[in-house]
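#struct-pred
JK: can someone run the complex with adenosine-5'-diphosphate? inputs below
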Amino acid sequence: MRRISIGVQWALRYTLALLVTVSAFGIFTYTQIASRTESDARLVLELQVNEVAVHAAAAEPDEMLETLERGIASADPELKLGFALFDGDGELVVARGSLARYPTPLPAGVLAGEDQSGASQVEVGENYPYLVMAIRAYPGFVQGALYTRPFVRNARDVRDIYLYSLPVLLLLTAGLGYGLARGSLRPLAEMNATARRISGTNLEERIPTTGSRDELDELATTLNDMIARIGRSVERTRRFSGNAAHELRTPLNALRSRLEVTLEQPRDAEEARKALEETAAEVEGLSNVVHAMMRLAQSEAGLAPEQRSMVDLQALLLEVVEFFAPLAEEAEVELVTHLDAPAHLPGDPSWLHELFANLLDNAIKYTPAGGRVELTVERTDDALIVRVQDDGIGVPKEDLTRIFEPFHRVSDRSMAPGVGLGLPISREIARAHGGELSVESHPGEGATFVVQLPVS
Ligand code: ADP
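RT: done, structure tokens with the ligand placed:
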């Protein structure tokens, strides 16, 4: 189907609206004026006929004729007045004026005395509208007639003005409507042009806003926000893929070199076994990175409704602590817990397990021997607050926000095991549960990671 622009659609709508309103108003005005002029004509004729009837009762026949002629002469000639007298049997006695030229029989109703006025509209000759009226007037009947065209002319004039001006009005409205619609739709055309220019590589451009805060301006602002969000997301994805490729390439290169060296010369069984063991450890490291990347993608997608069940957080944290107790002991770090608060919340137990395991793992990893790690649960009105506090090396100020970005690691500790995906995964898990993960830290004094989880 051919595309019809919104400007044309609006112009057509305006025109249709005007057609309907002007027609309704025109029909109303015309019928009002028409009915009023008809009653005016009837009134004039009634007066004339009544006057003649009064004379008919009193005057002699000669005087009667004179009265009829005088009445006709004194009236406006345009009215083409006419009178006729009938005897008691309805036989025409005399007629003057238009009724002499166009005699009209008495209506049967008037003759029988059933109809008092017998007024009727008759067409005499070609297109000659007359109003004819007859009343009983002793000893017979008086009939009067007048030409109604002069009365109807006003109404016809009004109707004609409407009919002739309507096409002009419609054309004018269509033109104006089109112009107005084009004017108010101009921002849309600009939006369209900008949107066409925006692509995966050009997400810096923004749709111009007018600051008028009207609907189109709001739409432009919303679209700009959306483009900004998409831009951030594309940038994140780009950085993530770059980091991921780098993170995988280094161990893969090491793996390849090791295999090449091993294969260069014949090895005895013991050497081969050692090389294979080392290779297996490297493959496991690689597979851990891939697994962490998949976990991050999963947690970013959010929690599916069927994943949610009521989780006893106290029991879950005890399990995590039990798992990490030997590690803490080995690292000579004291692990203290305050888990008395009743703590139930809807969520996925395995995801929550991973979240707290990451935090405890880091706390033990980045706390030197002799340090202390404290795990606390606190309940507020609508949330559970879990704190993992350590008195270890802490996080430098400039890294406080960046440690939640995938693959970011504080530069001077790259010897510690890990790839920098634990905190991003943990934050996404907290967010998937409607909560948040934040950190407070002073380098050298330790770090406190705070997980806030809503209970409903
Ligand atoms: P990974 O531990 O694998 O490096 P994470 O995403 O878990 O990755 O942590 C990112 C970085 O944040 C770590 O490299 C570390 O420098 C810092 N960090 C995390 N937890 C702590 C902590 N409790 N104390 C000090 N630094 C921490």
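RT: quick notes.
The mean pLDDT is 88.
The chain has ten helices and twelve strands.
JK: thanks, will look after standup
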